[in-house]
Amino acid sequence: MNQAVEDADLTILNTAISVAPQYDYVRVVGEDIDLLVLITALASTHSNVFYQKFGRGKTPDSYYSTTSFNHKFANELLFIHAISGCDTTSALFGQSKNKFISLFLKHEELLNAAATFLNPQATTEQVTEAGENVLVALYGGDPATQSLDELKYQSFVKAAAKTKFNLARLSPTTDAAQLHAMRIYHQVQTWLGNEKDPLKWGWMHTPSGLFPKKAEKDPAPESLLQCISCTCKKVCTNACGCRKAGLHCSVLCKQCIGQSCENPMAVILDNESEEGDAPAPIDMVDEQLECEDIEL
To answer: Which of 84, 218, 232, 237 fits 97 for a cystine, CB–CB 3.0-4.6 Å?
Structure first.
């Protein structure tokens, strides 16, 4: 029996690979999409290793081999899984794994950017630039001519003309995206068996252990933040600047952050339909979200 020190999924897969030569087939059973991704990316030469996902109710069990995911960018699957959100990296609001897969099917030139994350000798500058290029393309921009900050501003101007729009659907800032890219690189290299110092790749020490570094720059110019947030120190009653403007307080408000006041923003569930969008001032989701299954 092996005890996982950090990544249990990686320990499970490495154990399966190590015993594969001794058996006709090895079956890895689980519910986690991470296992299927790791089997596809790291056990491609072991045709006798399979992944089994138990069915529920009338749904039968599902079985996958190391070649079930037969896209031409199977080698970059680790990067796609990490950038779209896994156990250690944040998911981007409204950007599913299938959207990332569709992006790479449409823009094969982005495979060069993804390959940077597989290179154990890649520099911080190479990683952050490659990560930003992928995200610019994901949000509909041109990596050759636009930065994430420029794209975010242009998208905000267009969205502001709508009756309702969801700030969470804007791209992350360059500052936030660079830290996201660094954590992606660290995770991909960990999966590949290359040990990297997490403190150099987007993580920091806390009394509770490692914690993601937060972006140091504001998500928008200070003048804009002052226009759409308040500085109330109490409960945001009738004198609140947000309330006077007909707005709910949000996480941009320095004191109440849209929670400890009488003018909070309603909790809204993410909806793929743009018509149902309502303001939600989230730049990048920090919570770990449940990963969606990849359509094979």
So the answer is: 84
Cα torsion through 35, 40, 43, 48, rounded to 10: 90
pTM above 0.85, yes or no: no
Residues 178 and 236 in one domain: no
Verify that 206 and 242 share a domain, yes or no.
Answer: no
| Domains: count for the chain | 3
Taking alpha carbons only, the member of 280, 17, 264, 9 closest to residue 170 is 280
In a domain, 80, yes or no: yes
Q: What pLDDT, in 10s, does the model give residues 56-102?
A: 889 999 999 888 876 677 788 999 999 999 989 999 989 999 999 99
Which neighbouring-strand residues pair with 27? Answer: 50
Residue among 37, 61, 82 nearest 202 (CA): 82
**In terms of C-beta density within 10 A (0-12 exposed, 13-18 middle, 19 or more buried), how is residue 59 classed?**
exposed
Alpha carbons 22 and 35: distance in angstroms, whole number:
21
Ramachandran angles phi, psi of 33, nearest 5°: -65, -25
Length of the chain equals 296
Q: Are strands 26-29 and 49-53 parallel, antiparallel or unpaired?
A: parallel
Please check whether residues 140 and 91 belong to one and the same domain.
Answer: yes
Is residue 101 located within the same domain as residue 195? yes
Question: What DSSP string describes 209-246?
Answer: EEEEPPPSS-SS-HHHHHHS----SS---TT-HHHHTT
User: Using one digit for the tens of pLDDT, what is the confidence trace for 176-219?
Assistant: 999 999 999 999 999 999 999 999 999 999 998 999 998 888 77
Whole-angstrom distance, CA of residue 271 vs CA of residue 87:
23
CB-side neighbour CA atoms (13 Å) of 85:
22
DSSP state of 84: T
Residues 133, 15, single domain; the answer is no
- In angstroms, the Cα distances linking 280 to 47, 168, 264 are 46, 6, 11
Q: Which domain holds residue 38?
A: 8-65
